[in-house]
Amino acid sequence: MDCTYLSEMLYSLPNAKWIQTTWAGLELLMGSVDRTKPPPNFTLTRYVDPYFGELMSNYVIAQIINIERGFYVYHDAQKTATWSRPFFPDFRVLSDLTIGVLGAGKLGASVSSLLKKAGCSVLVFVRSSRSDGPTNNYDEVTTELNDVLEKCDYLVNVLPSTPETEGLLDGDVLKNCQKKPIFMNIGRGDIIKDSSIIKALKAGWISKAILDVFEVEPLPPDNPLWNTPEVYITPHIGAIPRIEGIAKFIAQNYMRYVKKEPLLNEVDWKKGY
């Protein structure tokens, strides 16, 4: 079911037992939850395309290479028929980079894993402590956000939208960045206000912002991010669900429901995901 419609009838479905959404993100739906009432009495499962992790990982790697090799600059030069080739270009390869990844869920793990396989050093931020050390997915994991901000060349947000993550990077938080990293947001837009991104760029706390998600979507034409130097915008295409994938997932979960097996991607009403 589409979350737009479900949010309008959340408390008007007394006979519902289980509802499968066609969305991965739940912020619109969770915004309709009345915290003064008990949660809805039906089981909710969300759709997560098995290829989302791969799609997001590819997006991150592509953006990093485009920035580091200057492909955006060469594309702009093409518009004016300018042959702009430096003799000794100053660029970094993937193995030179430390990438800070916010989030270690399914999507965050996919992103971290591909980055590490590509040769990057990967530092992961999680909100609750973990006992594991270096793995195939990352070199270090921490619950201290400043540890990540101080060490990273790129800061990649893959966190979902929850009450705990909303505004996590707002205000002067990015002032703690030591290496003027490039901020990339493919998680959810409410982790940082647009004004905080612009402030961080103008202050030199970060050097660029690659943004696929925003506070308000579609991004309004008069939003200052469109015209802010060193901002690269894509229209929430980091991971796009495919119709055939949705249909297969619903059928798979339906068979689990019929057989009374645990459903995939069941939502915790309290956590919001």
TrEMBL record:
**Gene Ontology molecular function:** NAD binding; oxidoreductase activity
Residue ranges constituting the D-isomer specific 2-hydroxyacid dehydrogenase NAD-binding domain according to the UniProt record: 62-238
Which terms are listed as keywords in the entry?
A: NAD, Oxidoreductase
Instruction: Please give the start and end residues of each transmembrane region.
Output: none
The yes or no answer to whether the keyword Transmembrane helix is present is no
Q: Does the keyword NAD apply?
A: yes
Family matches, as InterPro entries? D-isomer_DH_NAD-bd, NAD(P)-bd_dom_sf
UniProt xrefs under PANTHER family: 2-HACID_DH_C DOMAIN-CONTAINING PROTEIN, D-ISOMER SPECIFIC 2-HYDROXYACID DEHYDROGENASE NAD-BINDING DOMAIN-CONTAINING PROTEIN
This chain's protein is named Glyoxylate/hydroxypyruvate reductase A like protein
Q: Organism, per UniProt?
A: Argiope bruennichi (Wasp spider)
The opening ranks of the lineage are: Eukaryota, Metazoa, Ecdysozoa, Arthropoda, Chelicerata
